[in-house]
Design goal:
Layout (H helix, E strand, L loop, with lengths): L11 E4 L12 H13 L5 E4 L11 H15 L4 E5 L5 H13 L4 E5 L8 H14 L4 E5 L1 H4 L5 H7 L5 E6 L4 H10 L3 E4 L5 H7 L3 E4 L2 H16 L3 H18 L4 H11 L16 H13 L8
Parallel strand pairs: 1-2, 1-8, 2-3, 3-4, 4-5, 5-6, 6-7, 7-8
Helix pairs in contact: 1-2, 3-4, 6-7, 9-10, 10-12, 11-12
Length: 301
């Protein structure tokens, strides 16, 4: 029998937006409603809050704690909740990690420090300090196009030696490096770039930490299940059917268009915070066409 794909923090996880009210404050009721929908209807077995898509750069520490607590309360033990705690300041990230644990998070997502571009040894110090600060499993997040620094193969292999650093979210787009890390360590691997979901799955990834999971998580799960069962052609067809969604959500900044797409489905989203700006009518119309082409049902236009 085929062996199911099982990851250390789940298989299909959505990196959640943070619904906001018209006045820009966090919509905790909407947040809980969206979290429940993503788990109970969407079939996600994990949610990531306070990440890039959750506008972590413009939410306060107090808001981040409230967000973690609200989502944990909403989904209970039906899904793992990972809290983004990565910043460019190690001490600040340690504080956020401890606050996330106190708020009930089941794990941590830690992006590489941005802007200050530390050397690889500095990255080791940073991630290990955060992993030492709590009892929670840690997923590193490698996205050099945002942070300005990549996690090199040797760095990830060494980080995998830490008992609480259990996985990496890969948004680097370097399939050669991904293969070497998976070959040289037991680090779990999650696609953090939806367009590379199937390629990374074929190389040994455990699942996805997805943005389009807001809209198509059941199909992402079907993709994983088909591939795990050896139905590769079926997995390819599912993936190809999702290409317009992958492309459509990222024609502009992902949070902007994800919130626009959620509004089209009548789900909580609200505005974005500056410096992000709302999708234009032209962008919304193109997104609508992309989602229709990707077989996404919408209740609002």
């Amino acid at each position: 029998m085929p062996v199911p794909i099982v990851g250390p923090v789940g298989t299909v996880l959505t990196a959640m937006v943070t619904p906001l009210r018209v006045d820009g404050s966090v919509d905790l009721d909407g947040l809980q409603d969206l979290a429940g929908h993503l788990v109970d209807v969407g079939g996600n077995d994990g949610l990531v809050v306070n990440g890039t898509t959750g506008e972590s750069a413009t939410t306060s520490d107090d808001e981040k704690t409230l967000i973690v607590r609200a989502v944990v309360d909403a989904v209970g033990d039906r899904a793992r909740v990972l809290a983004g705690v990565g910043t460019s300041d190690t001490a600040h990230s340690v504080d956020l990690a401890q606050q996330a644990q106190a708020a009930g998070a089941h794990g941590l997502l830690v992006v590489a420090p941005y802007y200050n571009r530390p050397p690889q040894e500095g990255l080791l110090v940073h991630f290990r300090a955060i992993a030492d600060a709590t009892d929670l499993p840690v997923v590193t997040y490698d996205i050099p196009k945002r942070t300005g620094v990549a996690l090199e193969v040797e760095t990830l292999v060494r980080l995998a030696e830490h008992p609480r650093i259990v996985a990496n979210k890969d948004a680097k787009g370097d399939l050669e490096a991904a293969q070497w890390v998976m070959a040289r360590s037991d680090l779990g691997w999650y696609s953090g770039d939806d367009m590379l979901n199937l390629p990374l799955l074929s190389l040994g990834a455990n699942g996805f930490i997805s943005v389009v999971g807001h809209l198509v998580a059941p199909r992402l799960r079907a993709l994983v299940e088909a591939y795990a069962a050896g139905r590769v052609h079926e997995a390819m067809e599912i993936n190809r059917s999702l290409l317009p969604v992958y492309t459509g959500i990222f024609r502009s900044q992902g949070t902007i268009l994800t919130k626009a797409a959620l509004a089209m489905q009548g789900l909580p989203a609200g505005p974005v915070r500056a410096p992000l700006i709302e999708a234009t009518q032209t962008q919304r119309a193109l997104l609508h066409d992309d989602l229709i082409a990707g077989e996404v049902e919408m209740t609002h236009t």
